[in-house]
Amino acid sequence: MKNLSMKKIMKKEQGFTLLELLVVITLLAILSVGALVAYDGVGDNAQATAAANNTAGADRSIRTYRAIELKYPSQWDNLVAKDGTTPVFLAANTTAAFGKVTLPAGAFTTAVASRLEAVGITDIQTRLAAPKTGVIDPNLQHNEGAVGADVVEEAVTALTNISVMPAFTTAACTVGGAAISRLDGAALSAADSARLNIINDSLEGDECHFVVAVGFGHDAAHSTAASSVAVSTAPTYVSKDINPAKNYARYVALFHMGTEDATAGDVTLADLKAKPTLIAVVDTEGKVIDESIAKMNP
Fold it and tell me: pTM of the entire structure?
């Protein structure tokens, strides 16, 4: 009787049957798939969250500085080179989002400079050429002290080419008679006017707008150092399309200079505002905070 009981115990301790192993493997597979589904998109969600927070933070910092100092930070990054070409370290999504204009010599450009100076924007960091060999950080390439930098810190009175948000109605808009174009060279379209309207609802799609787009980079933050509300560092943007190790990855402030409400119109000297207004801060791909929030997983 005792031997029989021992045999039963030994039989029970022999291990899982094939059916039991298959059931366990199946359960583990189901749990693994469930975990993968649960964590799918976590990286994208984290990037979208960071972008939304940084956009809001940069906007708040710039506006707080303006409220306390009664001016904006003095130095900003130009997204277009001195000769009007597009710097090679701008990612494709950046060149698709922003544009440029060659300011006409004379009273119009003088007025643009005086209006920027009136709100404290006195210097623009502008690239002279493509980055030199040995340049490591594209986000320091608007800083004349960076290794291999080929940049000029020029007064706004010396501006020739400046980065803007593209504007279009039924035809390409002009600024002081000069054509606005996109950094990627693509033709302007109704999508560009829609983009401006998404950024700020007051910028109607049937009007021509002059909106200067300048990067809040390394020197922009450092130009606030003497203030009680100094911005310690410029935030960096990261996405699957923007690699800060290779691409310019700063947030961009949009200053509204003036509007011509005639279809296919020209923003003239008479259309310029007495003082530019900050209408938004966008990320390096031209997206506002609401667009970053919309990318977050529910």
Answer: 0.83
